[in-house]
């Protein structure tokens, strides 16, 4: 039997990474629903996820379907004019945004009537959210003010810079969103309420996403395709690093420490602070 063609290999890698990352959004809301509680998790994670995946959905849609953005990308990357964004990336982004909104809604007692922990979306998280929005508006203003032909000239400030800024917004939220949850786990000395299933699937998606990027660039015989899509490369690597941290917490550091599903112990209550206070320290 002849070996599969490079196109088939690339397709299988794309499907597998998208499937793993897409499935990773389900374990946490399912766990919350079964426990009828969000205790043990921080709302900072889904809050920043919503912002990040909104930015990622817009940037991915632009790279995939906008003739203007694709033309500007080709002009700036003549050795690799075809971007490495695929339909599976767009499908993943939109699907992820929807599931993030659902998970965030579970922190509303009016909508779900779940038991809530003491964690809140702190000032630091809101500051990052506002900062991302203000930064995006600033880039749009620069493109309109300094760009040639209303941002259509790729050699100056152009609309592709706005799309890159959206991608970096996703990168920033990805870096920050894990920190409050990792600290909450550290403070409570437990990962109870935090689904390890989503972490394992997330890790698999990050590894397969990097493999897909390498395969796409190798098939084009030009490794600048990797540097031309730094957001996707960065997301995969950051995901892997933090997933390893959570796995160490769950399987090594706090593997024998569990808390009750029906409430937080008094000592744990005193340890858990809001994510805003945590980051402020």
From TrEMBL:
GO terms for cellular component: fungal-type vacuole; vacuolar membrane. One of its GO terms (molecular function) is L-cystine transmembrane transporter activity. Its main location: membrane. Keywords: Lysosome, Membrane, Repeat, Symport, Transmembrane, Transmembrane helix, Transport. It comes from the Eukaryota. The keyword Membrane applies. SMART domains: CTNS (SM00679). It is a multi-pass membrane protein. It is found in: Lysosome membrane. The chain crosses the membrane at residues 44-64, 90-112, 124-144, 156-179, 199-215, 235-254. InterPro entries: LC_transporter (IPR005282), PQ-loop_rpt (IPR006603). Belongs to the cystinosin family. This is Cystinosin. It comes from Heterodermia speciosa.
């Amino acid at each position: 039997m002849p070996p599969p063609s490079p196109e088939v290999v690339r397709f299988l890698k794309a499907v597998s990474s998208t499937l793993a990352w897409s499935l990773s959004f389900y374990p946490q809301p399912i766990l919350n629903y079964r426990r009828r509680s969000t205790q043990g998790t921080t709302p900072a994670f889904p809050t920043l996820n919503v912002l990040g995946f909104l930015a990622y959905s817009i940037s991915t849609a632009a790279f995939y379907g906008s003739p203007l953005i694709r033309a500007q990308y080709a002009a700036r990357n003549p050795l690799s004019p075809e971007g490495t964004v695929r339909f599976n990336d767009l499908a993943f982004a939109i699907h992820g945004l929807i599931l993030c909104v659902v998970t965030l809604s579970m922190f509303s007692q009016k909508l779900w009537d779940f038991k809530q922990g003491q964690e809140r979306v702190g000032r630091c998280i809101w500051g990052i959210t506002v900062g991302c929005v203000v930064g995006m508006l600033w880039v749009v203003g620069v493109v309109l003010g300094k760009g040639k032909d209303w941002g259509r000239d790729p050699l100056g400030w152009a609309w592709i810079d706005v799309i890159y800024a959206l991608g970096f917004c996703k990168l920033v939220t990805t870096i920050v969103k894990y920190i409050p949850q990792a600290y909450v786990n550290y403070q409570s000395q437990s990962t109870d309420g935090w689904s390890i299933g989503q972490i394992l699937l997330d890790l698999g998606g990050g590894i397969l996403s990097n493999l897909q990027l390498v395969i796409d660039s190798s098939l084009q015989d030009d490794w600048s395709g990797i540097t031309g899509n730094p957001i996707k490369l960065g997301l995969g690597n950051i995901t892997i690093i933090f997933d390893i941290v959570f796995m160490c917490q769950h399987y090594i550091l706090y593997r024998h420490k569990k808390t009750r599903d029906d409430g937080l112990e008094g000592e744990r209550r005193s340890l858990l602070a809001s994510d805003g206070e945590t980051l402020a320290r």
